[in-house]
Amino acid sequence: MIRFQISTTLSLLGLLIATPAAFAEPNLENGKTKFVVCEACHGKNGSGSKEIGAPRIAGQNHWYEERQLHNFKAGIRGTNPKDAFGVVMRPMALTLVTDQDIEDVVAYFGTLKPELLPDTVTGGNVPNGKEIFTVCAGCHGDDGKGIEVLSSPRVAGIPDWYLLRQLQNFEQGIRGTHAGDIYGRQMGVMQKLMLKDNQAMLDVIAYINTLPKE
Ligand code: HEC
Ligand code: HEC
Asked: Separation of 169 CA from ligand 1 center, angstroms?
């Protein structure tokens, strides 16, 4: 009982300490230090690595990346045993101990200039994909740059092999089914409504590849 009270008190204190930090300016020096771990897979300029399966993270919307790091830490993402790549990422997110660490590292890689990545996914039909994307655009924007008020991330310029994997993860319920995954669930519904088969995913990705990547 006493142990319980102590730990509750500590976690309350933790919250009290963490809250003001959330409003502080990001500390880029701390972010840079934290990023040393990330570089091994996401690369020095945050462009990612297809071989490792780690996506480009520089250039993605900061509010989205912060949410994903919180999700990985909380086990909302990266705990499904079928999620081979998410399972690799989760322990890395756990190296970011505080909310401030998350904010700092995201702010740091937000300063990096990512490379423009070549298209790798083939077999898609651009006109079909364009038609499908009219619905996607409602949340992700006509230009695919994401819309913050709709919590929908950037898809243009994100590596196509990564987009395909995520769409397949939503299809198979590897992503977007955790009870705490409020935003992933929305996307899971859209995947099922709009992308009936693998060809539809290839088509929409072929269209996304035509959008300006920067
Ligand atoms: C051992 C390799 C590895 C390391 C080191 C690593 N990551 Fe990752 N990361 C991955 C992989 C693989 C994925 C893709 C997971 C998936 O497909 O769902 C990923 C995904 C992510 C995502 C989600 C991107 C998105 O658009 O959904 C973020 C954000 C991220 N990593 C940030 C970081 C940060 C910050 C660090 C350092 C603290 C880090 N990663 C270290 C392999 C790594
Ligand atoms: C109702 C709004 C909505 C619509 C419509 C929608 N999405 Fe999403 N999408 C989201 C949200 C919200 C997320 C973020 C989920 C999260 O935070 O985990 C997302 C995430 C994604 C991701 C994962 C990105 C990443 O970096 O991990 C992809 C890929 C994606 N959407 C593609 C599409 C495509 C293609 C369509 C059209 C077929 C579409 N979306 C339609 C709301 C939407």
From this structure: 15
How far is residue 11's CA from residue 51's CA, in Å, rounded to a whole number?
Answer: 40
Q: What is the per-residue pLDDT across 175-192, written as a single tens digit (0 to 9) for each?
A: 999 999 999 999 999 999
Domain residue limits, the chain:
26-109, 126-208
User: Is the C-beta atom of 138 inside 6 A of ligand 2?
Assistant: yes
Distance, in Å, from the CA atom of 57 to the CA atom of 113, rounded to the nearest integer, reads 10
- Cα→Cα distances 151→26, 65, 96, 140, Å: 21, 11, 22, 9
- Does CATH place domain 126-208 in 1.10.760.10? yes
- pTM for the full predicted model: 0.91
Domain 26-109 fold is: Cytochrome Bc1 Complex; Chain D, domain 2 (1.10.760)
CA–centroid distance for 100 within its chain: 18
Cα 45 to ligand 1 centre (Å): 14
The pLDDT tens digits for 80-104 are 999 999 999 999 999 999 999 999 9
Q: 132 CB less than 6 Å from ligand 2?
A: yes
Which ligand 1 atom sits nearest the alpha carbon of residue 39? Answer: 5
Q: Which ligand lies nearest to the CA atom of residue 50 in the structure?
A: 1
Same fold? 26-109, 126-208: yes
**Cα 44–chain centre separation:** 18
Q: Which is the closest atom of ligand 1 to the Cα of 105? A: 35
